[in-house]
Amino acid sequence: MDSNDVPTPQDPTTSPDLTRVRLDHPEPGIARLTLCRPDRMNAGDTHFVQAVLAALDEVESDTDLRVLVLTGEGRAFCAGLDLTGFDDDHLVTERGRVLRTMERQKEIAHLVARIRGLRIPVVAAAGGATAGLGLSMLCASDVRYAVPDAAMAVGYIRAGFSACDMGLSWLLPRIVGAGRAQELMLTGRRFTAAEAHSFGLLAAVVEPAELMDTALATARQIMRNAPLSVEYTKEGLWKSLEIPSFEAAVEFENRQQLFTALLDDREEATASFLEKRDPHYSRR
After folding, report:
1. Do residues 137 and 125 make contact, with C-beta atoms less than 8 angstroms apart?
2. Distance between CA 147 and CA 205 in Å, rounded?
3. How confident is the model over 195-233, as pLDDT tens digits?
4. Where is 105: in which H helix or E strand?
5. Closest Cα partner for 167 from 248, 105, 234, 87?
6. What is the model's pTM?
7. What is the pLDDT of residue 17?
8. 5: how many CB neighbours lie within 10 A of its CB?
9. What distance in Å separates the CA atoms of residue 12 and residue 91, rounded to the nearest whole number?
10. What are 17-39's pLDDT values in tens digits?
């Protein structure tokens, strides 16, 4: 499954600063990507964006991984872009303001598209402030949890930009409905985790001490299903949001069902269910 993105301009003189993220594996089959700029509320700059993309590439290439948990260190999930500077002034000087601004825009949007298009499901665990880029990353995830104090906002419009940024004008209306998305995007107001849950944006609001356990428990539930069945379900769910008719969606589903029906793991899933035992999948 591809990520429906476009090639991203890269700066050959800048390598990803991996101190801005941490990728670990809390359990077999589960990767955890932690955003690590707590002093800046995990706000993004060019090094942050490149580090997240590099980590996602590593996750994508590891076929032993089944689920990614996405979270942030400290009191924020991601508070948006770093408004004190994107740390790419040398590229502005080299390429000009207009060209570099468009390159920057594509790089950031590519990050959100990469999360949405990742081969495996992404479970977001928002432990605090979630705005701008952070809200887009949350919406691009497949299952979303947050703590009660996780204040959220579109963000972009309050900083003087259009609220239609980083895929949010496509993602948010499909998750919470057009009317609610219009209110949140036009006002840019903060909203609570409880509101986000009532909108359908969050699967649940959980206490901070339970946030990671809840995300990992969901990851384990996902992993009880056959790997390729999960991957194709993720792809089908997102693509069905773009399919214009019921009949076309059913035809797409039919082809997914034919593919998964012939997999060895489909037989194992059925056998383990009937025999009331844990499944043992081979991703084939």
Report:
1. no
2. 5
3. 999 999 999 999 999 999 999 999 999 999 999 999 999
4. helix 97-116
5. 105
6. 0.89
7. 64
8. 15
9. 11
10. 668 899 999 999 999 999 999 99
Q: Print burial letters for 20-45: b (CB count within 10 Å at least 16), e (below 16).
A: bbebeeeeebbbbbbbbbeebbbbbb
Contact 109, 167 (CB under 8 A): yes
E strands, 41-176, where? 67-72, 76-78, 122-126, 129-131, 143-146, 152-153
Bridge partners of residue 69, in order along the sequence:
32, 123
Phi, psi of 255 (to 5 degrees): -70, -35
Q: Tokens 């992993």 map to which residue?
A: 223
The rounded distance, in Å, linking the Cα atoms of 170 and 175 is: 9
How many Cβ atoms sit within 10 Å of the Cβ of residue 245?
8
Residue 5: pLDDT above 50?
A: no
The CB-based long-range contact list for 260-269 (8 Å cut-off, 24+ gap) reads: 260/226, 260/228, 260/229, 260/232, 263/226, 263/228, 263/229, 265/226, 265/227, 265/228, 265/229, 266/226, 266/229, 268/226, 269/225, 269/226, 269/229
Across the beta sheet with 143-146, the strand order is 21-27, 30-35, 67-72, 122-126, 143-146, 204-205
- Residue 199's CB is within 10 A of a number of other CB atoms, namely 17
Segment 52-73 shows an average pLDDT of 97
Task: Please tell me the distance from the alpha carbon of residue 65 to that of residue 59, in angstroms, as a whole number.
Answer: 7
Best CA proximity match to 80, nearest among 190, 208, 182: 190
pLDDT number for residue 14 = 46
3-state helix, strand, coil in the chain (%, to 5): 50, 15, 35
Model pLDDT, residue 106: 87
Per-residue pLDDT at 92: 74
> Can you spell out the DSSP letters for 142-153?
SEEEE-TT--EE
Tokens standing for 225?
């299903």
pLDDT of residue 239: 93
